[in-house]
Amino acid sequence: MSVDMNSQGSDSNEEDYDPNCEEEEEDEDPGDIEDYYDGVANDVEQQGADAFDPEEYQFTCLTYKESESTLNEHMASLAATLKVSHAVAKLVLVSFHWQISEILERHKSNPAQLLVEARVQPTSSKHAMVHSSHHCAVCMQFVRKENLLSLACQHQFCRSCWEQHCTVLVKDGVGVGVSCMAQDCLLRTPEDFVFPLLPSEELKDKYRRYLFRDYVESHYQLQLCPGADCPMVIQVQEPKARRVQCNRCNEVFCFKCRQMYHAPTDCATIRKWLTKCADDSETANYISAHTKDCPKCNICIEKNGGCNHMVSNSLNTGFLLFSADFCWMCLGDWKTHGSEYYECSRYKENPDIVNQSQQAQAREALKKYLFYFERWENHNKSLQLEAQTYQRIQEKIQERVMNNLGTWIDWQYLQNAAKLLAKCRYTLQYTYPYAYYMESGPRKKLFEYQQAQLEAEIENLSWKVERADSYDRGDLENQMHIAEQRRRTLLKDFHDT
């Protein structure tokens, strides 16, 4: 890659039923290459053990009607077995995350305790006696007996208070969480108890939406698509932190946490990392700038591509003064990176830091964080720059096809190379939060070694993608194969299975 010198830093029908309609939209990454996981298999043939894909994951995209049908099927079956109403069966399923085998096992051993744990029946010690008084326990007004309503706990309240209670909670976005008004009573209200108490169809529609949201979110095999205004539900057999993609809005996310896909980092760790990055964003601001100083001439330079292999030329009145090849990350001579790239991506811990002052430990902690943050941020920016390269490749292919220099299929390997580069770099970016929180030891050394191997091959691939016309198809596809093999090896050994 060359560098620029002297630059400066710089609510509807059921089919479209949307359980997320009141949630805020998430910003899209402007540097993303759409569907870069698709369409590259033909150019990256894996053989034998290399054919194992640690990210392979079976999932199904369900419409609202399909997911509602699935939920109702489970509910009807359980209601018949437990001999309870459909509404009560749903609350039992929610309480046990729709794991029917566990529910049936508990029912077999102690059916009464099952309902108590599901918060649809009170314990015997908290079972209140039916009051002969016709006073509401909330408004303390005398009401007729037929206007007093209660759940299985027998805590009686007038219909007007129940209506107000349910209306306020539903307006606040509560679904299955609507509970008894009595102090310290945790019994949940079945939906067939709540619906008649809601005063308008608009409020009933909201309650129906919140119920559906809660039913899906409590189901261990289902996840709502986080895409903006998308009503789809993702279904899996075994819930894992794996990449899934909605077939309606094309949103890609981790099934387990519904956040951006983050392999090899686990869900809890990526949450910690993103929170830390947000909290320390001002501290890290100075290293997130686009510019650095050339290590040879100290002229301010700017990266103009995704590759970290810098080739800068300093010109003076048209005469070449020197040429420098160096690494954008460590500013070291690129010639040594064939053997020392491992050192460039590995943070060197200070073994004596525990014996030093608190101020020294704080400085060391900040130094370590900035080391990993800079590399995390650098690969994110490289993804955005390489997305521009991808667009240029598409334009170049289109131009060649229009000039009768081959068909689209003849040149598609160039597009696939750019897609694979994005796929590999995306994985590499998420290795840095993993390494940051990883404890020192033999396993971390193995991880850092594989991380460095992957990084080296990605830089080789990035260099060749940006100069695709200088390499024949076989050379480029061979580099694609090597990079993808490194990526799969790292995920196979370190991605949570």
UniProtKB/TrEMBL annotation:
Q: Which domain of life is it from?
A: Eukaryota
Per the UniProt entry, what are the Gene Ontology biological process annotations, in alphabetical order?
protein ubiquitination; ubiquitin-dependent protein catabolic process
In which residue ranges is the amino acid composition biased (Acidic residues)? 12-37
- Polar residues: compositionally biased ranges: 1-11
Its cellular-component GO annotations read: cytoplasm; nucleus
Organism of origin: Melospiza melodia (Song sparrow)
Q: In which pathway does it act?
A: Protein modification; protein ubiquitination
Q: Which SUPFAM superfamilies match?
A: RING/U-box
Q: Which UniProt keywords apply?
A: Cytoplasm, Ligase, Metal-binding, Nucleus, Phosphoprotein, Repeat, Transferase, Ubl conjugation, Ubl conjugation pathway, Zinc, Zinc-finger
Which family does the similarity line name? Belongs to the RBR family. Ariadne subfamily.
Region Disordered: what ranges?
1-40
Its taxonomic path starts at: Eukaryota, Metazoa, Chordata, Craniata, Vertebrata
Stated name of the protein = E3 ubiquitin-protein ligase ARIH2
